[in-house]
Amino acid sequence: MAPRKSKKKAPSFRKLLKTSNIKIENKLKNRQFKQQSIAKKHRKEQKKLKQALNNAATRTPLPLERYKKRHEEEEEEEFEETLPVDMMEDDDLEQMKAMAQKASFLTRDLSSSEPVHARKRKQENVMDKYEKVPRLMQKEQEKELIHLLPIKDKTGIIPQTMEKPVVKKAEKENEDEEDGGDGAEEVNAPKPLPLLTTQELVVLRRKRLEERKVCIAALGSSILSDPSANIKKLKELRSMLVELDPYVAVTVRKLVMVSLMELFKDIVPSYRIRPLTEAEKSTKVKKETQQLREFEEGLVSQYKFYLENLEQTVKDWKQMKKKKSDVVSLKSYKGLAEVAVKCLCELLVALPHFNFHNNIIVMIVPLMNHDCKKISEMSCEAVRKLFKQDKVGQASLGMVKVISGLVKSRNYEVKPEVLKALLCLRVKEVEVKKDADDIAPKKKFMNFKEKRKHLSRMQRKWKKAEEKLEKELLEAEATECKEKKLKLHTETLNIVFLTYFRILKKAQKSILLPCVLEGLAKFAHLINVEFFDDLLIVLHKLVESGDLSYRESLHCIQTAFHVLSGQGDVLNIDPLKFYTHLYKTLLRLHAGTANDDMIIVLQCLDVMLTKRRKQVSVQRALAFIKRLTTLSLQVLPNSTVGILATNRVLMHTFPKSDILLDNESQGSGIYLPELDEPEYCNPQNTSLWELHTLQRHYHPIVRKFAAHLIVGAPSEGSGALNVDLSRKSATDLFEDYSTKGMTFNPPVATPSSKKKEKFTIGDALLDSDLKKQIDSHLEATSIPSDLDFAAQFRKAFI
Q: Which residues are in coiled coils (predicted)?
């Protein structure tokens, strides 16, 4: 009969490993306690023994008792002394001495333990006596065992152990001395390592660094060659992030950070890896599928640990706390943190689709507001790149949420660069009004009942093939759903406008106000119509308050007209106050630092006059043309070119503006340039005399535009501009002819070099008669003091 199987389950590997660790710890504790108690007992015994020896050495021996000998004994001793010893043999003499020693207690050997009158044993065995003496055996130290991973066999689990290598350590023990009672054992101290010179240290560091570089390169190349098979080497490479060699620790950690970043950028798939469900784990799959799952799981775990290491590096630098086991100094923390932030920024931009992208966003956004300029610039640049390349909007939405939370949590006290990054959002594709195509219901495929009811058998067959082909075409397009993109962009803009409106309401004197106004100017055409009235009132109050700078007031005007040019066309609002404010402040621009604000002025003029031509009167247009021409005399050449290009567009848009080229006045009154109201300054009674001054400008493009406007800005003919100049907008011309490089743009042409003719004296160039006269005059030594030309003339005619 077969033996009965035990129903007791074998312990799992994890449980066995856990219990073995506990047993090992208990054994180690018991062994240490036992060794301590034995050493303590041994020290006590040694101390007692030394104390007894010291007492015996210092004690003076008592004198032996002397008995009075009888007369007969004295005579026998005298007789023995007088015996001739020379006549005795050596054997007899030794026997007599032995008998004499055993004769009495005083003369016998004290080391012998036999009684005085013991009989001599016959055939005494010396070897037996020697064997009875206890031997001092050298105690062997008990060897410590290390429990290894067990082996599972058919019979069960077989535990594995090995002996722990013994490391000999030199110990010093203080002992009592003989004189003072306390002494110290002399132990040979280990010799210190020889000190290395600076040159030797450099050579040693270079050698170790080369070894680490070779190791990093080998691991990286093996992972890139076959990522699925060598995914475990990522852990080996990541372990080098805690390099303990003080000579190369900082450099090696930086190299490993950058190497891992490049590796993840290369081997990470183009999809997000989700965790497997319990049902998926329990089902059997193919070998290739199982390998792919293991690769994905290992990749995600190593990527997570790598991000945690980078985050911990940045935290250590922020807290400036050095770990006890760390060999890196506090000064090196900043360099490591900069490399870690750079790696995080690269992963933020390169892997927006992969796992833990939201975690990277949460780490990067607070660094945008950091005091360190380099780290703040790297973080802001990475965020701007992410906004520019994000076509779908999922990553942008997550980033905007975190930025909005940061601004609110810091009570709007953040750097302006944080909000300037929002200007790079790609939300121009958002359409607020739905087209007819979007509203129309989508085409649906027929179900089986409808096909059977309305179609024949052959038609159903063709319909099935047609629907299959249409589905394949839809899958082949692989385009993002427009509704999903529209929803993401709408939610993103709602959060952006919520942040902007909070700052306009609660922090109007904050340094973030220029960024808010600039952002509103860019995205104003996407604001809901319900907020237009309130927004225009707030903007007008800000402009009239006088607390804003000139650039901020320009942003307010630009925002207001962007709002009115978009969905605000349906509103019957005349922003006369904004026209008046811009007309009044135009002459603040000059050739200094205010020249950079000219591009905003040109954008405002395009929105205010060109795009709203139907709502602008002729008087207002003439006033702006005259003031812009006056402004062109006091700004840099690129601003002058932009202003003249704007005047050219306005002259084409308002044909009646050609009266400014005539010297005769139109109507009553005179031109009032000091009046701030463009409607009532009588611009029709003046002329553009500034164009004659600009015709003598040193810049060639300014001269061309001035000559073009004087003749009425014709599109064809001799006075027309080149195609390159006529097709460009005013803002493009402003940027093209910028003088930021402190050079002439376009460069000044070098004058043509003309060689001077040299006068050479020779027979070939002079007449013979003339040469004789010259020679005679040169040879003459005396020069007449009185020059009487009349006498010489009379002599010539006589």
A: 455-484
pLDDT at 98: 64
Confidence of residue 283 (pLDDT cuts 50, 70, 90): confident
Q: What does the pLDDT look like over 403-432, one tens digit per residue?
A: 999 999 998 889 999 999 999 998 876 655
Of 656, 628, 663, the residue nearest 643 (C-alpha)? 628
Do 258 and 339 touch, CB atoms closer than 8 A? yes
Judge residue 489's burial from the number of C-beta atoms within 10 Å of its C-beta, 0-12 exposed, 13-18 middle, 19 or more buried. Answer: buried
For the chain, the first-to-last Cα distance in angstroms comes to 175
Rounded distance between C-alpha atoms, residue 455 and residue 449, angstroms: 10
Report angle CA 549, 615, 432 to the nearest 5 degrees.
75
pLDDT of 487 reads 85
At 788, the amino acid letter reads: D
Nearest in space to 499 (alpha carbons), one of 583, 445, 604, 425: 425
Q: Which two tokens stand for residue 453?
A: 């009811």
User: CB neighbours of 616 closer than 8 A, spacing ≥ 6?
Assistant: 608, 609
Which tens digit of pLDDT belongs to each residue from 456-477? Answer: 777 777 778 888 887 777 665 5
Closest of 581, 696, 705, 715 to residue 640, by C-alpha = 705
Residue 305's closest CA among 378, 367, 232, 244? Answer: 232
Q: Which of 551, 552, 557, 562 is nearest to 509 (CA)?
A: 552
Classify 25 as helix, strand or coil.
helix
* C-beta separation of 607 from 562 below 8 A: yes
- Using alpha carbons only, what angle is made at residue 389 by residues 387 and 395, rounded to the nearest 5 degrees? 55
**Radius of gyration from C-alpha coordinates of the chain:** 54
- Phi-psi label, residue 616: left if phi above 0, alpha if psi -120 to 50, beta otherwise: beta
Given a cut of 90, whether residue 137 has pLDDT beyond it is no
Strand, coil or helix: 163 = strand
pLDDT at 305 > cutoff 50: yes
Residue of 290, 301, 303 lying closest to 261 (CA atoms): 303
Local structure of 175: helix, strand or coil: strand
Q: Tokens 């306005």 — which residue?
A: 650
b/e code 687-710 from CB counts within 10 Å (16+ = b): bbebbeebeebebebbebbbebbe
Predicted pLDDT of residue 176: 44
Instruction: Give the integer Cα–Cα distance in Å for 46 and 185.
Output: 13
- Amino acid identity of residue 543, one-letter, is V
Q: What does the alpha-carbon distance between residue 88 and residue 99 come to, in Å, rounded to a whole number?
A: 16
| Cβ contacts of 466-469, under 8 Å, gap ≥ 24 | none
Contact 650, 609 (CB under 8 A): yes
Residue 388 corresponds to which tokens in the numbers above?
Answer: 């520019």
110 secondary structure, DSSP code:
T
Q: Which two tokens stand for residue 703?
A: 């001269």
Give, as one character, the DSSP assignment of residue 606.
I
pLDDT tens-digit series, residues 487-542: 888 889 889 988 998 888 887 788 888 888 888 888 877 877 777 777 888 888 88
Question: Rounded to an integer, what distance in angstroms lies between the CA atom of residue 543 and that of residue 550?
Answer: 10
Cis bond before residue 746 (omega within 30° of 0):
yes
Of the candidates 667, 672, 597, the one whose C-alpha atom is nearest the C-alpha of residue 639 is 597
Which pairs with CB-CB distance under 8 Å and at least 24 residues apart come from 22-27? 23/147, 24/146, 24/147
- DSSP secondary-structure letter at 392? S
Q: What are phi and psi of 263, to 5 degrees?
A: -65, -45
Rounded Cα distance, 36 and 34, in Å: 5
User: Would you give the distance in Å from CA 530 to the centre of its chain?
Assistant: 42
The two structure tokens encoding residue 340: 């870690």
User: Tokens 């402003």 map to which residue?
Assistant: 734
C-alpha distances (whole Å) from 368 to each of 254, 334, 348, 375, 783 are 22, 16, 14, 7, 92
C-alpha span between 397 and 400 (Å, rounded): 5
